[in-house]
Amino acid sequence: MKSPLLSICIATYNRAxxxxxxxxxxxxxxxxxxxxxxxxxxxxxxxxxxxxxxxxDCPGLRYIRLPEKGGIDQDFCKAVEYAHGEYCWLFPDDDLxxxxxxxxxxxxxxxSYSLVIVNAEVMDRSFSTLLQPSMLDNRExxxxxxxxLEGLFRRIVPTISFIGCVVIRRETWLEREHxxxxxxxxxxxxxxxxxxxxxxxxxxSRPYISIRYGNAxxxxxxxxIWMYKWPQLxxxxxxxxxxAKRKRVKPEPWRRLKTLRFYRAIGSYSRDMYEKIVAPSxxxxxxxxxxxxxxxxxxxxxxxxxxxxxxxxKKKNIMAIYELSNSxxxxxxxxxx
Length: 337
Prior knowledge:
CATH topology of the largest domain: Spore Coat Polysaccharide Biosynthesis Protein SpsA, Chain A
Order of helices and strands: EHEHEHEEHEEEHEHHEHHHHHHH
Number of helices: 14
Number of domains: 2
Number of strands: 10
Radius of gyration: 20 Å
């Protein structure tokens, strides 16, 4: 049997209520050149039941359940190892393919790129409201040669923080280092930028993915992820100049009181985060006192004030307004998915 050109690799954990919708958006686009590989990190909900039903109905889908939870970075590595395709599209377990996504990517892969980056739109958790029409900062397709790793970096960071945009040659992934990126939550970024790619990279500007925003399983750790883990990973990339990194990601983005105020309002910046990230830093004593005070502010009241401020003075910042509104809804007793 001929190996597929493309393996859609999904790492999942406790997504029984979402992964079916994701699979439906993919399965209707499958061809003989495409397979789906789902690695389950030992889910404790009904994910196994859902997946076994889909695997029984779809010959192009393989489901592998791991004996224990390994973490998102390790599980994506497992998915690539189990894949049979020449290329692997790394995809989350709760987002959706837009129509013609698979065919467009297959067409690009015939040009033998080492990497394809697929643009995405951002929707709310129910897919009823468009929050951001495009994650990339311009709408033109582009090709970056193997000698232009920094040009690629400048174009796709921070979009590349979303793993679902990555389609990479399986051989390239397997031959690169992985272990030092375990626990970062962004192993794909480390794999891509640790060395120049062996061939060209292609960026597709049209959004072919719909992201379900605010549904990440680490939502409660948003401050730690975006203010600490993400910048730490970016600044560990030796092949990218400090100038390029600083333009895209500040080394310590939490060093602004208004940033701390925002994350406190959504409930992600707390005394624990202060002790873990801010207290050990070389920030001045008065600044640390202000940062500590913010971590102790009553979240419900502060959230209401911040939401009013953004709705009144920052009307275009729809992502921040959504975060603040969602945080207030969760505290009022509405379930968080």
